[in-house]
Amino acid sequence: MRPEVAVIGAGPAGLTAAHLLCKGDASVTVLEADPTSVGGISRTVVHRGFRFDIGGHRFFSKAREVEDFWSEILPHDMLDRPRSSRIYYDGKFFSYPLKPFEALAKLGPVEAGRCVTSYARARLNPVPEPKNFEDWVTNQFGERLYRIFFKTYTEKVWGMNCNEISADWAAQRIKGLSLSTAVLSALKPVRPTKDRSGVIKTLIDTFRYPRLGPGMMWEACADRVRANGGHVLMGRRVERISYDADTERYAVEYVGPDGERQRLEVDHVVSSAPLSELARSLSPALGDEALAAASSLRYRDFLIVVLMAKDEGAFSDNWLYIQDPSVLVGRIQNFKSWSPEMVPDQALAAYGCEYFCHAGDGLWSKSDAELAALARREMASIGLIREEAVIDCAIVRQPKAYPVYDSKYQRHVDVIRRELKARFPGLYAVGRNGMHKYNNQDHSMMTAMLAARNILAGRELFDPWRVNQDAEYHEDGDRGADEAGRLIPRLLRRSTIPPKP
After folding, report:
1. 491 lies in a domain?
2. Are residues 427 and 286 in the same domain?
3. E strand intervals along 317-367
4. What stretches of 297-408 show up as alpha helix (H) in DSSP?
5. How far apart (Å, rounded) are the C-alpha atoms in residues 311 and 372?
């Protein structure tokens, strides 16, 4: 029987699932709350000929299946771009990932000596079983380098002390990095590898990127879904998902752009909506413990102030991390370095100043004029741009940009997962916010791929929650090299949900 599927959300996870399900001859309807744009946080915004991301999105994956998916959707529009990121600290720029000899040289002999001593102390007497971000990074780099290169930026992102952030965040995002491994990497010669066209590349230094921004990928993917018989409905906000155990079917109730209420009956639901929202929308209702867990999940919001300016050669990096407590900006993008086609005139540039906040706080609530003035002033204070060079500005506020990894988040997620598995067969939570898991774009896509495989097979072959459970985040391997490794769980043999304590 042809499965009928509702996909909630038209971001990378939702559209990946929809595309693969349509190719497998499922009946698919995508419900997206945004009235105009697909891609979620991976969309591209266009402002008077300038194009920019909501953050930056490198297209790089060790999973061959993900790389093949991107090539299928945009076979002729993917650029190979040089990868370049730096940290700004104490008026100087440091390569990221850290190059230890460069970093110690720029810090000066006295500070370098302190960093080496601090590192040695951490290696001789590490914090046993680190539970928070501060302890985890200190174990890897030493307390001195942690405070110089990690503490300020991380606390800007999350709006909380590093000792309140789960060590899971560090383990997922910077796993495999330490001062010793960085030194060894610096001493080893780089091994060039060949891509499929036979061109020799050092893939650690490059990534792919759609020439018109990441939104180009997901707009093309939505077109593929429609061409294969699926529906992508914009401006549809899901309010309730009801499961009938007798018929084993779901009724998805949503509100359309004109306020009309509609209902869609399906066999399966794939949801990339925030896990807390999914939990509260279900009927029969989850138990009190799971609902309390859903209410306890937290998110960090984000806004970007894009300054369009004369290109005076400010910097050529894709982005800069601003490890400086004297300014509020956390990261600065140079969209022209992602693709020259992101600007309408090569004499111009577009710089995205990223601020991390909570919806409704003082920063979020500032007027657009106040935010534009703040970004101009801070860019000038860092020495990246003259305020007079700015010719225009655009601002985007993005709620629920990042799932917060506080000390109790995993416990809350596990409680919700247990109920979903026990009471709602055929419902899959996928993607970053859908799983409350800080996945990269490729990891989010893989969770959707596995959900689609299960639906098309008519049985549970894979557990999407295992994606990126053990995989290293850092982009330090060959593109597409992991054909069936840690990114892609083996056939499901047992539940990975921890038992109820």
Report:
1. no
2. yes
3. 319-322, 331-334, 348-357
4. 335-338, 368-382
5. 18
Report whether 141 contacts 106 (CB < 8 A).
Answer: no
User: CA 440, CA 418: separation in Å to the nearest integer?
Assistant: 24
326 and 344 in a single domain? The answer is: yes
Are 321 and 153 a contacting pair, CB within 8 Å? yes
Sign of CA dihedral 201, 204, 206, 207: positive
156, 275: one domain: no
User: Would the pTM of this model clear 0.70, i.e. be above it?
Assistant: yes
Number of domains the chain is built from? 3
What distance in Å separates the CA atoms of residue 116 and residue 108, rounded to the nearest whole number? 12
- Residue 203 belongs to some domain of the structure: no
Which of 382, 403, 424 is the C-terminal boundary of a domain? Answer: 403
The token duo for 439 is: 């996945």
The residue from 187, 222, 251 where one domain ends is 187
Q: For 230, list phi and psi in degrees, rounded to 5.
A: -85, 170
Domain containing 290: what range? Answer: 4-44+63-74+212-297+407-466
- Would residue 81 count as lying in a domain? no
> Is residue 396 domain-shared with residue 411, that is, in the same domain?
no
Both 287 and 142 in one domain: the answer is no
pLDDT string in tens for the chain (501-residue length): 899 999 999 999 999 999 999 999 999 999 999 999 999 999 999 999 999 999 889 999 989 999 999 999 999 999 999 989 999 999 999 988 778 788 889 999 999 999 999 999 999 999 999 999 999 999 988 999 999 999 999 999 999 999 999 998 877 766 555 555 555 444 445 454 444 434 333 335 889 999 999 999 999 999 999 999 999 999 999 999 999 999 999 999 999 999 999 999 999 999 999 999 999 999 999 999 999 999 999 999 999 999 999 999 989 999 999 999 999 999 999 999 999 999 999 999 999 999 999 999 999 999 999 999 999 999 999 999 999 999 999 999 999 999 999 999 999 999 999 999 999 999 999 999 999 998 889 999 999 999 999 999 999 999 999 996 544 434 445 566 554 444 555 555 444 555 555
Residue 109 and residue 256 share a domain:
no
